[in-house]
Amino acid sequence: MLLDENYKEIRDLAAKFSDNEVAPLAQEIDLNSLIPKAIIDKLYANGFMGVFVPEQYGGAGMDYLDYSIVVEELSRNCASTGVLVSAHNSLCIWPILNFGTEEQKKKFLPDLASGGKIGCFCLSEPNAGSDAGSLTTFAEDCGDHYEISGVKNFITNGKEAEIAVVFAKTSKTDNYKGISAFIVETKTEGWSILKLEDKLGIKGSSTAQIALDKVKVPKENLLGDYEKGFRVAMATLDGGRIGIAAQALGIARGAFEYALNYSKERVQFGKPISHLQAVQFMLADMSTKIAASKLLIYDSSIRKNKSENYSLQAAQAKLFAAEAAMWITTKAIQVCGGNGYTKEYPVERYFRDAKITEIYEGTSEVQRLVIASSELKK
Questions:
Q1: 361 counts as catalytic
Q2: 348, 358, 361, 375: which is the annotated catalytic residue?
Q3: Same domain, yes or no, for 267 and 351?
């Protein structure tokens, strides 16, 4: 798929930023489990933290394909940086932009898009992962405000976030029908971090378990309609899946490009290993899976831009791109041999980073259920 000039400009900008600012720090980010504030400040300065937010709310005024391209290019060098931007934009900003009142948009979006406040999305709980309808966090109606209590699990950007989209039951139901969504400022009394996860990959991205103990939320911070929060969550995750697919694509590209260059330089039996058919076949399959992933992601992004139904295409993009990334990073290590298994070479980091794309924002198994359900309804 050929991009028009506007999309080429954002690709060039994001690629240059990724190569010049992110790549030199990628190993350090992984080792220290921290994205430096200087990088985050530059992400805001370049408009990456509010890609599709209209300019009237302090954003860059671009669209969802621009966003996918940005996440892809950042993830090509550092998946942790990619998911910081992805989760912030698609999981916190998007539901406020699409379900929020005008007052909510004016209050929260400028801070998120250009004001330095990071956002997160609080749906999962220790006993409510893929089964989101079984969450137990409860929001008690206290007249002019709600008091939210519960525990949220595996929250991306949970350490840094100042604004959160939180899902809680407002009725004592045993299914999704009693769920409402809220915008919560994390500096509110009662919000605390129980622990930070020590993860296999995307180590620079914080993943927190959050406790809410009677956190007071004004009534005007109800996001969307009362007890229609499950709809907000599912619509948000549809878009979020495109972002994770773009992250997976970036990881795959980074691993492939490194393996390709390595194969040209590594000499065995008197010639570069790129001359070996076994290596060529791996490279050919890697290249093809990347091309297919890109088309699926771009297609779902364009459908979202046009306000078309894209749930099926987003699930297909995430499923294929995530599994492709896992396969490609495995083969990248194989191309690099013993060197690829050491931390001196970046392909082992790409391998560790790729695995999570098959899990969060809907496992590969959940994507297959979504895809099958959509096809069976036709």
A1: yes
A2: 361
A3: yes
